[in-house]
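[DERIVE STRUCTURE TOKENS]
===
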Amino acid sequence: MTEEFDRGAALDKFDIADRVAIVTGGAGLLGRSHALTLASAGAAVVIADVREQAAEETAADVRGATGRECLPLEVDVSDAGSVETMVKQVLERYGRIDILVNNAALDPKFDREHAGRHSTSFEEFPLEAWQQAMDVNITGMFLCAQA
């Protein structure tokens, strides 16, 4: 290696101060942690979650803990129109999107609201629950990345 490594220049590439980050499933356990970390690093964070009140509460917590801008949005990542509306709102507010954390996920076997409603046995797992999980976990990720 003939070039001298500039650690500062390399680390500058990872600086997210004043970047705009969307965290889908932002009001969930992992989403909240992602949002707090991004805001602590200086990013404005969009808490995108299907549960509007939970998104608002999480955004208030993130703002209180970090002092950073945090926008709560009700978004169903499995619905293309909802995702398009989210992107439009973020672009109107911030003018750009720099970071997407595709965190929204549904696992009916473990989600509190579905606990006990479905068998954990593969042979007895309902097709409807499988399709809903695929819509959120796979299609939702695709729609958000595509938008």
About this structure: The longest strand covers residues 44-49. Residues 12-146 form a domain with the Rossmann fold fold (CATH 3.40.50.720). DSSP finds five helices and four strands in the chain.
